[in-house]
Specification:
With about 280 residues, the protein is mostly helical. It contains 13 helices and no strands. It starts with about 20 loop residues before the first helix and ends with a helix.
């Protein structure tokens, strides 16, 4: 016969948190788990809110890691940089998976609460813009949607005017003895980087003799990994939006799918993709 009064074994786990920091305290779960406030009675609005909130949390980590990677390049701490770049790619792999959950929402279900969004749109995500600027897709006009957040706009302006991750890579290549023109190494950092034949020639040298230039070779592949996952994120965004709203105008005023499709043609590290044709 089983003794129902026998105490449960807790293997030494602490059970009293009246005067100690708990798991929920450390993670500030009360703030996080009470930040979902649907504006309608539609069942799927909770999914929509949580999917976007969690994506923003992952983007916060991506920004943190991109800034770290950029500094590591400046300091020539490449082994540490490789680890961080691998993590950034995995972050975007994780963000990508979120679209799979959102795609379980049908057009009819989204219609039940879409009008509650007003003019809010992912286009207005200042964190997404920060990632774009850090990665090198610069556009000064994209500061304007954030004018209502002066501190965030100032932060974005600082990222716009500073060398991007790829700019720091090219500066590093110059330090390693590759001859790159001054219009690459000393340019207006606020402008989007454009393909350069001298840079492509330098990368060809790296790829033709990887053992001789192993660190730069590995760095190049880490960058391609990152852009690969970033492209997949954009593609999944387009297909999810088309699946849910078709070709309607976006809530923020963009053309919706049409605008997102244009973004698919953006290339962050052009020479690293084009050099593959040369080999």
């Amino acid at each position: 016969m089983t003794d129902t009064k026998k105490p449960v074994e807790h293997h030494g786990a602490e059970l009293d948190f009246s005067d100690k920091m708990s798991y929920g305290d450390y993670l500030q779960l009360e703030k996080i788990l009470t930040a979902q406030t649907p504006l309608s009675t539609a069942h799927d609005e909770m999914l929509f809110i949580i999917q976007h909130q969690t994506s923003e949390l992952w983007m916060r980590l991506a920004i943190y890691e991109l800034k770290a990677a950029r500094q590591m390049l400046r300091d020539e701490r490449l082994r540490e940089c490789f680890k961080v770049l691998s993590r950034i790619a995995r972050i975007f792999e994780q963000i990508n998976k979120a679209w799979d959950v959102l795609r379980t929402m049908t057009p009819s279900e989204y219609t039940e609460f879409r009008d509650k969004l007003g003019l809010s749109s992912g286009f207005q995500s200042w964190q997404y813009r920060a990632i774009e600027f850090l990665a090198g897709n610069k556009n000064a006009a994209m500061l304007k949607p954030h004018a209502h957040l002066p501190e965030k706009q100032l932060e974005l302006k600082s990222l716009l005017e500073a060398p991007s991750l790829y700019d720091e890579v090219l500066i590093l290549m110059s330090k390693r003895g590759f001859e790159l023109p001054s219009d690459v190494l000393k340019r207006d950092w606020s402008r989007k980087y454009q393909h350069n034949e001298h840079v492509q020639k330098a990368w060809r040298q790296v790829y033709e003799k990887p053992l001789e230039h192993w660190e730069l070779y590995e760095l190049a592949e880490k960058l391609v990994d990152f852009e690969d996952y970033f492209r997949r994120w954009r593609f999944n965004h387009v297909t999810t939006v088309e699946r849910v709203i078709g070709f309607k105008q976006g809530t923020g005023g963009t053309s919706g799918v049409g605008y997102l499709q244009k973004m698919l043609s953006t290339v962050l590290f052009p020479e690293l993709w084009q050099v593959r044709t040369d080999l």
